[in-house]
Amino acid sequence: MSWVVLLRGASRKGITRRMSTANTIPHALVVDDDKQISQLLARYLGEQGFRVTTAGSRRECQAAVATEKLDIVILDVLLPDGSGLDMCRELRSRSPHLPVILVTALREEVDRIIGLEIGADDYIGKPFNPRELLARMRAVLRRSATASQPASLDTVYHFAGFLADLGSRGVTAPNGDDVVLTGAEFELLKTFLDRPGRVLSRDQLLDLTQGREAGPVDRSIDVLMSRIRRKLGDHTSEVLFKTVRNGGYQLAVRVDRGAG
């Protein structure tokens, strides 16, 4: 069954956009050069409480990002005027906290890995059930929303000379430099900081950070771990994370938590 059929089955009555006056309505940008898919997906997401803007090219995506206040971007990898991967890299550079979910064909496993490496928050392969996309969007938005929540009394983690602040969702290196992490990277780091010394499997990490189970070829946690290790490793020679064979990953340094 094609995902166009799935979308038709999931969405039978809505409209392509919601009123733009309600600030509480999340605003999604759907970037796909197939107008039928974009319209069907916009209608379905509209019925689920989203305001949706569509774009059919990289140029239209750039224009929407420049003029609209967006909460999340659903970005197809194949665009008529350029690569969605390049667009993802540009979005991450311009708007580091804007969540991006990549849409790829099942055969494009390499593209998915590259997309995660350059900063996508998640990916989904065609064909997909729109309900799965909706679940992933909500999970990504929940992580993103944490950044705007008031800080609690205990908001700062100290580990191996680093400082991670839950209020600002920022990480400071031992030498005082800022370590820029994406929302997905920070959420994964926080998961380890909350459980120092505990071995966490890939399935546990996916469940804790994204609320879903790993697929048979899901490498998103491995890619995120590689990125975190590289970014933090640029500022220390200490081994922060250990890979436990047939187990998962472990934060191997002491963590102190205190008030900001």
Summed up:
The protein has helices at residues 3-10, 35-47, 58-67, 84-94, 109-117, 130-145, 183-193, 202-210, 220-233, and strands at 27-31, 51-55, 72-76, 78-79, 82-83, 100-105, 122-126, 154-159, 162-165, 170-172, 178-179, 199-200, 241-244, 248-251, 255-259. The protein has 260 residues and is of the alpha/beta class.
Verbal overview:
- It is elongated, with a radius of gyration of 19 Å.
- It has nine helices and 15 strands.
- It is α/β, with parallel strands linked by helices.
- The strands form four sheets. It has a five-stranded parallel beta sheet, sandwiched between helices. Strands 11-10-9-8-15 form a five-stranded antiparallel beta sheet, with helices on one face.
- Helix 1 packs parallel to helix 2.
- Residues 12-22 have low confidence and may be disordered.
Number of helices: 9
Q: Name the beta content range.
A: 15-25%
Order of helices and strands: HEHEHEEEHEHEHEEEEHEHHEEE
Shape: elongated
Helix content percent band:
25-40%
Major sheet characteristics: 5 strands, parallel
Strand order of the largest sheet: 2-1-3-6-7
Compute the number of strand runs. Answer: 15
Mean pLDDT: 82
Global structural class: alpha/beta
Distance between the termini: 52 Å
Parts with pLDDT < 50 across at least 5 consecutive residues: 12-22
| Radius of gyration, CA atoms, in whole angstroms | 19 Å
